[in-house]
Specification:
mainly beta, 4 domains, nine-stranded antiparallel β-sheet, 34 strands, elongated, SH3-like_bac-type, SH3b domain-containing protein, Dup_hybrid_motif
């Protein structure tokens, strides 16, 4: 195969893209042909069938998807970001989240666009071996606005979001972790847990295989899932206990130290049904009344129940920046500005940039801008360190005719030619190149005179 991208005339190229997009408009057709593929994989297969993977824009689109997984943005949940997908420049978002077994990841995507388009949302387990490709564990339908996934293992997960070729628009993405089980004592929350998973027991001879939730004696204890009561018993350690089988998730829920048991073995129960009452029976005698709650996975034993029932009290952070800058240029306003790998002052340092460096705003989270740097990488800068380019930093009169370039590169394409004596407002500086504004408002680059 020719290693160079195929080049078509503008008319033929537009026609190919139009035919391709029209053919990909039927979700049912793709599902019928590519039953074992995710919507993203089916779309890639269609690109290759149409040989669009041999075009420059097709290769850029595929590369953007890979880059999103290779250099994802590490974020803390809950997370919210708004931004813009340009139709003429393939772009994909990649996020890395640390999650625990038993949590439910909920991803919501809002799109505003003039044209209907497919947007692909895929979730991967990052794994522990950098040489191994991430394992896809969930995908949303290409027209869906929500993706949910119950986490099966404690590990980082990667989320990729990418629109189809030649489609763009504004996006708002929120990512949250929610509990998969109802809290076993109504009206209580994880704030009422006084003893957690792994705490020492019997002078360190064993570890605590659950969580202890304190509540007054006689407080109702409820079913956290729909299931079947598999066992109602009394033991020296657990006192009055109830085992609830959750076959859907392959686990048993364990309720111990009950004062009373109000169900029988074999009984079907629904979420919220009362199973018993809080007490301090078994080896909990002498302590305050509380419920010991545990989860035992089929074939794996005990697992930490905290992520299964913990509901974060942290609100979804609001976007606090000027949204008018999204999709436009800004410049560094301080003498030197740190650019971070994530929208947090604690995030890793991506680079440091001098005053007046131009940045293209691609998104915003909290009070940070997501920006495209001069090297085309994306990172985050606190909004207080940038300013609009509306006001020029200088006005220069050209001593000789100079080309107006479309990029800050010696081999960039020439947009226009600026005559000698022409006064140009300079709005930002990138090394030996200056970003200038023409009288009609267009921006371009001029290589500074030596």
């Amino acid at each position: 195969m020719n290693s160079k991208p195929i080049s078509y005339s503008p008319f033929i190229y537009s026609l190919l893209i139009t035919l391709f997009l029209t053919g990909c408009g039927s979700r049912e057709t793709l599902r019928g042909v590519f039953k074992k593929e995710s919507p993203y994989e089916a779309y890639v297969s269609s690109l290759k069938s149409a040989k669009l993977d041999e075009t420059a824009v097709g290769q850029d689109w595929l590369a953007a998807g890979q880059t999103a997984l290779q250099t994802p943005t590490p974020v803390t949940l809950p997370f919210k970001e708004t931004g813009y997908f340009p139709a003429d420049k393939p772009r994909a978002l990649g996020y890395k989240v640390e999650v625990k077994r038993g949590e439910k990841l909920v991803v919501n995507l809002e799109m505003k666009a003039r044209q209907t388009m497919q947007v692909f949302m895929d979730l991967f387990e990052a794994g522990t071996d950098p040489a191994t490709a991430p394992k896809r564990v969930a995908s949303a339908d290409s027209t869906a606005t929500i993706l949910t996934y119950v986490v099966d293992e404690d590990m980082a997960h990667l989320l990729r979001i990418q629109p189809e070729l030649l489609r763009g628009g504004s996006y708002t993405i929120t990512i949250q972790a929610q509990p998969t089980l109802a809290f076993p004592i109504p009206g209580k929350s994880s704030r009422h847990i006084a003893s957690i998973w792994g705490d020492p027991r019997d002078a360190g001879a064993r570890s605590h295989e659950g969580i202890d939730i304190f509540a007054p004696r006689g407080t109702p204890v409820i079913a956290s899932v729909d299931g079947t009561v598999s066992r109602v018993d009394e033991t020296p350690r657990g006192g009055r206990v109830i085992w609830l089988s959750d076959r859907e998730r392959g686990q048993n829920l364990y309720y111990a130290h009950l004062d009373q048991q109000l169900v029988a073995a074999g009984q079907r129960v629904s979420v919220g049904d009362t199973l018993g009452l809080v007490g301090n029976t078994g080896n909990a005698r002498g302590t305050g009344p509380h419920l010991h709650f545990g989860i035992y996975r089929y074939g794996h034993g005990a697992t930490n129940p905290y992520p299964y029932v913990h509901q974060s009290a942290a609100p979804i952070p609001a976007v606090k920046v000027d949204a008018a800058h999204i999709g436009n240029w800004v410049r560094v306003s301080s003498k030197m500005a740190n650019v971070r790998t994530a929208p947090s002052a604690k995030a890793g340092l991506h680079t440091s940039l001098p005053k007046n460096t131009p940045l293209r705003v691609t998104g915003a989270a909290n009070d940070w801008y997501r920006v495209r740097l001069p090297d085309q990488s994306e990172a985050y800068i606190i909004s207080s360190l940038v300013e609009s380019i509306a006001k020029p930093i200088a006005v220069k009169k050209l001593k000789q005719e100079r080309p107006l370039l479309d990029e800050a590169h010696p081999e960039a394409g020439q947009m226009d030619s600026l005559p000698a004596g022409f006064a140009i407002p300079v709005v930002a500086v990138n090394g030996q190149f200056e970003l200038v504004r023409q009288s009609d408002g267009r921006l371009g680059w001029v290589q500074a005179a030596e």
